[in-house]
Amino acid sequence: MKQRLYLGIDFGTSGARYALIDEEGNLCSERKRAYPEIGNNKNWATSWKETLFMLLNDIPEEYRPSVASISIDGTSATTLIIDRRKGDVLSGPFLYNESFPNALPTVVSIAPENHTVCTGSSTLCKLVSWWELNSSTDRESAILMHQSDWLLWLLHGVYGVSDYNNALKLGYDPEADAYPKWLASQPYSFMLPSIKAPGTPIAFIKEDIRLQYGFPEDCVVCTGTTDSIAAFLAARASSPGKSVTSLGSTLAIKLLSRVRVDDARYGVYSHRLDDKWLVGGASNTGGAVLRQIFTDEQLVILSGKINPSLQSPLDLYPLPKKGERFPISDPNMMPRLEPRPESDVEYLHGILESIARIEAKGYGLLKELGATAVEEVFTAGGGAKNKTWRKIRERVLGLPVHKAEQTEAAFGAALLAMKAAPCKNIMHGS
Prior knowledge:
Elements lengths: L4 E7 L3 E8 L4 E8 L9 H15 L8 E8 L4 E5 L5 E6 L9 H7 L12 H11 L2 H4 L2 E5 H10 L4 E3 L17 H4 L9 E3 L4 E4 L2 H7 L6 E3 L2 E2 H8 L7 E6 L3 E7 L11 E5 L2 E8 L3 H7 L2 H8 L40 H25 L7 E5 L6 H11 L3 E3 L5 H11 L7 E2 L2
Parallel strand pairs: 1-4, 4-11, 4-12, 8-9, 10-19, 13-17, 17-18
Antiparallel strand pairs: 1-2, 2-3, 5-6, 5-7, 10-11, 13-14, 14-16, 15-16
Protein name: D-ribulose kinase
GO biological process, one term: xylulose metabolic process
Catalytic activity: D-ribulose + ATP = D-ribulose 5-phosphate + ADP + H(+)
């Protein structure tokens, strides 16, 4: 029996990466590509498409006949409007961080109070903005696709399929597994994609692509997810109470919970993961404030001189600028970075410990809101490399803290592809 391999591709903000894994989850091959400039301006859709096929071409030829399934993750709320007759991009891509305040009053008027869609950058705001600005003739054959939906469509050719992680900011209710009535009753509801669980087979790969790259006849293309969910999957925090703290420029936590928790006051919302929930929140503290004060070299040297078993007496709230989101929601909150001791070692100790206290308060808030209590923490992001900080966090959290072995979203997408066993009743791409 031939070896079966699973391909995951991550489309991030600045580039894309593939990861190819075997049935035991071992990494067989990976490659990263920066997005190419198309002409004088970056044409995002063309750039993503070109990158996708460059990555497929990067896969070693000897592995390609063994690729059983493919999944792709993309940035949350990155949206395109597509003509389903011709496949042309009618509008967009509207990127994850683009805001459409013109559409927000309409969305707020139809959605429940404090719903996830009630922010200018939500997918629904992007859809409503496009709908209000375009004539009825442009609308007739239009369909909404998320970034990963569109990239997957290039491989399977079936219109209008998405996953419930990407569709959360569109207004899909993952608990009811349906669009709510307030959304399904809108005049643009025909533009909404059908929703499946992440990692669900959609269709076999298109024949022309299969022949060009040497994939097998039964290679399945399946639904994807968002980049942050894929990164969580990569860490393999697979049981309730396991969590991932990402220590990048900001501090973000994601906790696997038996209970769904949503509270817009703190930017807390839940993604569905099979029969569980991934509850998350993000603070503005993190690596950005550290880099304002210390160089990377200083961080390494000074961290090595800190005794992580000792508690720092400094009570700080390290923020890079005014404003905090979680676990305190206060847009006017000012950074608290004083008093600064003469010793840089003591100062860094105080900052690292203060960030750890914010992390602990975040997990405490999720528990107060009803989420499963955290039992074990895996760490991703640049801060995961700092062993001293990990030991400080273990002491402050009172929990085991590990560096996640895998944090690449592409690896998580490959694990998602592994869920999609080939099926005889799925469609061949057109």
